[in-house]
Design goal:
Elements: H1 2-9, E1 10-11, E2 14-16, E3 23-29, E4 32-42, E5 45-49, E6 61-68, E7 71-83, E8 86-90, H2 93-96, E9 99-100, E10 108-121, E11 126-142, E12 145-150, E13 165-171, E14 175-187, E15 192-198, H3 203-241
Parallel strand pairs: 2-9
Antiparallel strand pairs: 1-2, 3-4, 3-6, 4-5, 5-8, 6-7, 7-8, 10-11, 10-13, 11-12, 12-15, 13-14, 14-15
GO molecular function, one term: cyclic-di-GMP binding
Domain PilZ: 101-214
InterPro entries: PilZ_domain
Length: 242
């Protein structure tokens, strides 16, 4: 019986996050309570569709109770975004730890830039400062690393490899100097794609980075949702005209 439950709902480390989807969800603030349906839960955010969404304001502290097939889950959180018919609330770390996800931290697609200021071969302990910083295009980012490409197909591609440390400055609508370690290198058509992990992030930068990732995660989700709704509407219109 226990193995059947684990197979259906997740591993021993936590439930499968899918058990939250389409669960009846109650939101409570002050003296107001509303019931809706949880339709999305990934990374730092959850979406709850409910008819009385307009009663809730951005920044409201709410108590969320989720009635799922695998039990009752309760958490205190904050409303961080809204659109007609739904609210986005923070999925706090203590709740995320109850569920198994492919990534420890959510990774979001971005289109930001940065510069490589220097690099170090870890094995040789040799540091190199660049007279002319090399621009990079950041493709995605999370709290533990990022993916990027080098724009000018520089010869530095031949130098950078796994375990190489980079001194970089990231432009994420705020300046973020940091150290990266290259974890993987992948050949694309006309350049290389690099996956790199953050070596250390000061606490003040960590909080700012978390806010940047959260805003992008919400924006990306809303864009994807509207694209899907538009596609469905067009398919429905096309079917009606046939």
């Amino acid at each position: 019986m226990k193995q059947d439950v684990l197979k259906r709902y997740g591993s021993k480390e936590g439930y499968d996050a899918e058990v939250l989807i389409n669960s009846r969800t109650v939101l409570a603030k002050d003296d107001f309570v509303s019931t809706g349906i949880l339709t999305y839960a990934q990374g730092d955010i959850m979406e709850i569709e409910l008819p009385e969404y307009d009663v809730f304001l951005l920044g409201d502290k709410v108590k969320v109770t989720m009635y799922t097939k695998s039990g009752l889950f309760v958490l205190d959180t904050t409303v961080v975004a809204k659109e007609p018919g739904s609210l986005i609330v923070i999925n706090p770390p203590e709740n995320r730890r109850k569920f198994s996800e492919k990534r420890e931290f959510p990774r979001v697609e971005v289109k930001n830039l940065g510069q490589i200021m220097g690099f170090q071969n870890v094995q040789q302990k040799e540091q190199h400062q660049l007279e002319n910083p090399i621009q990079i295009s950041i493709k995605n980012i999370s709290m533990n690393g990022l993916g990027f490409t080098i724009n000018d197909n520089s010869m530095i591609d031949a130098i950078l490899h796994k375990k190489c440390l980079l001194q970089v400055e990231l432009d994420l609508s705020f300046e973020m100097p940091c150290m990266l370690e290259i974890i993987r290198k992948e050949k694309l058509e006309d350049t290389y794609y690099y996956g790199a992990g953050f070596e250390t992030i000061p606490m003040e930068q960590s909080n700012t980075l978390r806010g940047f990732i959260l805003r992008n995660q919400i924006q990306t989700y809303f864009e994807q949702k509207r694209d899907e709704e538009f596609k469905k509407a067009m398919e429905k219109k096309s079917a009606a005209n046939q």
